[in-house]
Design goal:
By secondary structure, the protein is an alpha/beta fold. It has a single domain, classed as 3-Layer(aba) Sandwich (Rossmann fold). About 35% of the residues lie in helices and about 20% in strands. It is built from 9 helices and 8 strands. Strands 1-2-4-3-5-6-7-8 form an 8-stranded mixed beta sheet, with helices on both faces. Helix 2 (about 75-90) packs across helix 3 (about 100-110). It is globular, with a radius of gyration of 16 Å.
Amino acid sequence: MKEIKLLTKDKTQIAVNEYENGFDSVVIIAPGWFMTKDSKSFLDIAEFLSEYSNVLSMDFRGHGKSSGFYTFTSREILDILTVLSYAHKKYKKIFLAGFSLGAALSLIAASKIDYIDKIVAVSAPSDFKTIENHFWKKEAWIPTFQKFEPKRWLSIRPGLVNLKKTKPLDIINKIKCPTLFLAGEKDPTVYYWHTKLLYDKAECEKKYVLFENCCHAEDLFRQNPDKFKELCIDWLFGNN
């Protein structure tokens, strides 16, 4: 694995871990708010996916080793489009694995470009303004405590939250590539109805799976790794 730096149109530097194992396909991992490519969960996800494909795992602006400030999907679309452009020049097949706001950005990106082959959208919100974020519930603070990483926490730089945002619900019918929607039954941050609504409105080839007794985004991988891995492998690589 090597770290590369890519520059967006607004001159923000995006840090990416690239796992090169000789495949002609790549999975772009897009973490959510407060998570980075070097978080243990995402290192583990990248490691297992790299057995089946090359991997690009990114830090959005305001996170980890990327520059800038996080705007909660308003400007981060430039980040993921920059990584996609880099991947498009190198790989024959491009897959997206997005988590929470990273899933929202993956869907928005797929509505803008036509060379994404498949998507896994985990805990995708339908609209930023309706995210529940009940951080005081045990389903929220227990996983947060379990994933406590001081270095990651200190790297987060939030920016303006009230900038104009694209609602995933408004663009979901524009997505043409096959999309797997995953949600946690006990998600206290993005209730599972968000992801189910996106699934219902999507017009592409699609599948929806609810993880019973699981929480938010990367917690699905942490709490039920066998099921998560099986679904992702089958969806992304089963027909390749």
